[in-house]
Design a protein that fits this description.
CATH architecture of the largest domain: 3-Layer(aba) Sandwich
Structural class: mainly alpha
Bound molecules: adenosine-5'-tetraphosphate
Order of helices and strands: EHEHHEHHHHEHHEHHHHH
Largest sheet: 3 strands, parallel
Helix content: 40-55%
Shape: globular
CATH topology of the largest domain: Rossmann fold
Distance between the termini: 27 Å
Number of helices: 14
Strand content: 5-15%
Strand order of the largest sheet: 1-2-3
Amino acid sequence: MSAFKELVFSGVQPTGNLHLGNYLGAIKRFVEMQARDAQCLYCVVDMHAITLWQDPAALKGQIREVTAAFLAAGIDPKRSIVFNQSQVPQHAELAWIFNCVARLGWLNRMTQFKDKAGKDRENASVGLYAYPVLMAADILAYRATHVPVGEDQKQHLELTRDIAQKFNNDFSQSIAAHGHDEGAGFFPVTEPLIGGPAARVMSLRDGTKKMSKSDVSDNSRINLTDDADSIAAKVRKAKTDPDALPSEVAGLSGRPEADNLVGIFAALKDVSREDVLRDFGGAQFSAFKGALVELAVETLAPLGAEMKRLVADPAEIDAVLADGAERAEAIAAPTLDAVKDIVGFVRRTRLHAVR
Ligand code: AQP
């Protein structure tokens, strides 16, 4: 067992265009989790990325860029384990076993698959459909207790909990027979950590749509590598309504663009929406946007510059990933050995010493 009280796992897909939503909803919170009594694992989930076509010539760079974002944001690769998913084979192995635990009916309810597959569902990859099962394996290979994510991942985390519970039930006798029943089954029922003012950052062009890497409009998002001028231009162009800011949070209801900008300001400043409106209630958007530009540039410009510095040295990033993969595998391998025993597989006996 780990010496830490909690085990935190989360991941980000290397699908390009890392944006403010990824930062405020996930990466910034990953950094904060390092202050807890927790072993944190932060994973660049490249196997998830290929559920939609990725150009092989670009993918390596995208993996290194997400790693750079983790490090530039303040994730300490000595304190936390930073790695990419495809270097740790236990994720895929456990995913197969979970494919045999999860039910078709559960996956058929996943809204992200419906959104991403769109109308041409017959042509979507099997991987895109099975994605949430791999996500459950990512988390449970480490028997993670806590998973910080944005709100869009809520349904997938519920599925992870269902898979853990069904595995614990289906194999309860075998779990006990192998001495793994520590009172609550083999897998923990993971706690999602979703919240704060930026759990769902919305598009700057449409306050009803999530800010997303795949949005065709670059003006819909602030990329983590945008320079100060682009950040300023995008905030200034962000859609708003004609009214002044309200002085109470209730006044943001029915005003998605205003709510989004106030939420972004609050998350960047580590305060609540109430605090922001205490200062800006009654202000026009022009004044508020000026303050938001200043705050966003103050936070993101150094982050983007550090990312660029780090990606210029791929060997350094690859060394971080290799070290992280070894430490991650040291946790995941015993979990998989135990799972294979529980399921009833005959495990390989090493006939030759490993060199
Ligand atoms: N708009 C968002 N607001 C808050 N959190 C967000 N996250 C993503 N978008 C927002 C969180 O970022 C983490 C990593 O996300 P991901 O890269 O694994 O996948 P995603 O949710 O599919 O990201 P995108 O950017 O929206 O990409 P596309 O365009 O492919 O759909 C997760 O914790 C996620 O919740």
